[in-house]
Amino acid sequence: MTTILVAFAVMLLIVAAMAVGVIFANKPIKGSCGGMAAVGLDGACDICGGDTAKCEKEIEKVKKAASDTPFYNAAKD
After folding, report:
1. 56: left (phi over 0), alpha (psi -120 to 50) or beta
2. What's the rounded Cα separation, in Å, for the pair 15 and 7?
């Protein structure tokens, strides 16, 4: 029983460390290489409804909002 509790505690610490890393990296979580098209599920997504121009507009809006901040972004360089 002790082994199971120790293994659970270790896994909990690993998950917590990964969560802290994601929070401090301050970058959006990205999908895997190729996304849904790589596995053959090339349907319309729920967000853009198949309109890729809408996705591009959202990406540009996010980039513009990030560039309007008064702080220096060292991650861009």
Report:
1. alpha
2. 12
